[in-house]
Amino acid sequence: MGAGFRRYSTYRQATVAGAFTNTVFGFLRCYVLLAVAAGAGTATVAGYDPARLATFVWFGQGLLAVVLLWGWTELADRIRTGDVVADLLRPVHPVTRYLATDLGRAGHAVVTRFVPPVLIGPLFFPFYVPHRWTTVPLFAVSVLLATVLCFGCRYLVNATGYWLLDIRGPMILWALVSGVLGGLYFPLRFLPDALVVPLWVLTPLPSLFQTPLDVLVEIDPTPRQLWLVVLQAAWVVLVLVLCRVVQRRAERRLVVQGG
Amino acid sequence: MTVISARGLRKEFTVRVKVGRLRRDRRTVAAVDGVDLAIERGEMVGYIGPNGAGKSTTLKMLTGVLTPTAGDISVCGLSPVRQRTRLARRIGVVFGQRSQLWWDLPLRESFELLRHIYRVPPAEHAARLLRCRALLDLDEFLDTPVRQLSLGQRMRGELTAALLHGPEVLFLDEPTIGLDVVSKQAVRGFLAELGATGDVTLMLTTHDLADIEKLCRRLLVIDHGRVVHDGTIEALHARYGSRRRVVVELESPAAPPEVIGATLVTVTPLRFEYDLTGATAGELLVRLAGLPIRDVSIVEPDIEDVVARLYTGVPVTDAP
Amino acid sequence: MRAYWALLRGQARSQTSYRLSFGIDLVSNVWATALDVFTVFVLFAVTRTLGGLDLHEALVVTGMSACAFATGDMLVGNIERITLYVRTGRFDAVLVRPLPALPQLVLLDLPLHKLSRAAFGATVYLVALGAADIAWTPGRALLAVIAPVGGVVFFGAVFVVTASVAFWWTESGEFGNAFTYGGRDFTSYPVSVYSGWFRNAFAYGLGFAFVSYYPALALLGKPDPIGLPGWVGWIAPLVALPATGAAALIWRAGIRRYTSTGS
Fold first, then answer.
1. pLDDT tens digits for A214-226?
2. Among A33, A36, A42, the residue to mutate for chain C (most C Cβ within 10 A)
């Protein structure tokens, strides 16, 4: 984990550029959603008032680099070059090892990528301060779960490289689906309930992004907040187990076919 | 006719040097520090020096990729940076590791595309390609995508690509780096043949001194941005005190005679070795007549030794 | 001209040599723009107006932006790979060819698989024009054609400028995205949804307001709630000219910078 943290702290300039870009997109998305709220003419849209919407957007921009929806191809690259065989020789299970590195990366991102938009947003837009003391620790847990869950999903997408020569298809599919159905472009509650509920329960996507943000802006009462986090945890367990199963199958394939 | 000329060529770079934990200072470093060159049409010149001596920087300035900090350059009568695209038609460049070819296309198609880019008349193009195909044995992989070629095959393709527009000057940056022995010989043989026609001026940087010995009459040695030697290989040897060595093997033990202009370096009962310090090999052999000689061989001085000494900074003196 | 045609042909042959990947790219690129349009529909599911425009009117803005961006991205977008060329030294190989560097780079990497997306963007635009309540005149028809063309050129210029940053700042990473993809997002919605200095900077400072919003207002015959006069929409496509000029200057300065530092 420490190694992951250190490695990412060397990309200082790219970090500055990334934080800048997240901030610009924060402005863009925030203005659009606030205009939606203004155009609706009601006090709230889908349960969000303007302060909640702005907070949703700006914490979302910060969270983007922490959970890292896109841009992780390390495993796929190692599979393609064959370096992945060296992973099998290490004493730690690959999933555990990559996860530890990823948590280090996320820790670094919390400091460098999460903080800037979260500080800049409230300077220009209304800000929702949580009313219940339970919300803040629950948000922290939810972010951690979202990070692990997102890692698991990325691992699975990368692992398709064990079977496919070109994983651009799964990669692009993941990038498109995770952004829209995770809640990056608009809060998922804007969609009709008949769509949102199955989406939330049957796919891990809202747990990646929407859940921590909804927890933070207290859109639901405490018990419902808790249930959403429990649902997240269930997805984490399921996806990590799946990662190990996939990894075992892939290793068997590697051993049998000699790479 | 002088094809390449440079006077007082200088290139400075600003580098940031870490001072302490956070502070960085800007410092100016001269990669090329007052180089004068005059290369005649048809010459084959080896440009050598240790890593960081300024070889690639010079080559980049001569091809118009880099603007000199100071000094004048003229290549084919053009000013490289200002007239870069005009110059590009008249020179060929092979950068060892930077391909001019289309990675996913067969060589044949890359060549065809280059014909359009350089606007070469089809007949000329075909004639040059035919010649390269024969000399470089391209036929067996002409229809293979470049990404599937071995390094040696690719380099033969790169050479062809650089020559199809009939350049007057060919710049080669490390043309044999990383190649296997057979490919190296093929490339050298081809370049030697090319040079022998006298139409193309050739300037190559290399770390492989065998390239130089096989190809170049003239040698430019650069170190710390300055030319420290400009002349033939023999002149380099003379200057740095390398000698031809005569090895004499005997049928039965005998005492080596003293010869003026030759220094005895090793003596064993059946073998002795002289370094020629003034006498010719012939003069030495005359003095050896009457000995029970089984075999005599002359070992040419090894340029690697000379250059290695040069690189490691051993002071240069004219006589041992 | 034939030289450029040759470069284009080489690129086309290279890309189609991986048939499956090319197919995947062709399809997936449509989705990226489709989701942008989908987002607009979702937003209008919870509101009736956005920045003073209803769904059909807003879609003219979004469609014009999608059409201009997707085409500009296809034609010039891959110039952002210049960072890769500079880092690996392949840029030197580009410079020793007898063609100017910019058209070479654009054609060497032209992503033909983005053709599908440009076509999709154009379709969205045409459908939006049909669905919106536009009182067609010859002038409006002309504007409807010229505006996206101006937008394509404008986005092309934005791509060149943000890519040129790499000559000074090699590790600029995602920085350019703020203005390229950020510009796309900005122009997808009526400028009236933004406010304050941010709007002034993006809309008028950088000129993004003239890509889709003002031409769309002129087509729809609607006044600008921000207060600019009606004729602005008619000359808005001209914003492509200063943008191109600026891009040319910055690109040239970038090349000069490269040839003097070599990094």
1. 999 999 999 999 9
2. A36
Domain-ending residue, one of B216, B238, B260:
B238
Q: Are residues B252 and B205 in the same domain?
A: no
Measured between beta carbons, the chain C residues lying within 8 angstroms of B119 are: 2-3
N residues, chain B? 320
Q: Which of B85, B112, B145 sits opposite C100 (nearest CB)?
A: B85
Round to whole Å and give the CA distance between B120 and C2.
Answer: 11
Same domain, yes or no: B57 and B147: yes
* Residue type at A123 in one-letter notation: L
B186-234 confidence digits (pLDDT tens)? 888 899 988 888 889 999 988 777 788 888 889 898 888 888 888 888 7
Answer yes or no: are the C-beta atoms of A128 and A51 closer than 8 Å.
yes
Whether A176 has its CB under 8 Å from any CB of chain C: the answer is: yes
CATH, residue B258 = 3.30.70
Contact C101, C85 (CB under 8 A): no
Print the domain residue range for B296: 243-300
Q: What is the β-pairing status of strands B218-223 and B44-48?
A: parallel
Q: What is the pLDDT of residues B81-111, one digit of tens each?
A: 899 999 999 999 998 667 888 888 899 989 9
Q: Quickly tell me which residue has 């059946």 as its tokens.
A: B270
Name the nearest CA neighbour of B174 among B150, B204, B201, B200: B204
User: What is each CA distance from C91 to A92, A120, B159, C87, C100, in whole angstroms?
Assistant: 42, 38, 19, 8, 12
Residue ranges per structural domain of chain A: 2-257
Chain A hits for C47, CB-CB cut-off 8 Å, are: 36-37, 39-41, 45
Residues B84 and B183 in one domain: yes
Q: What is the pLDDT of residue C263?
A: 56
- How many domains are there within chain B? 2
Question: DSSP letter at B2?
Answer: E
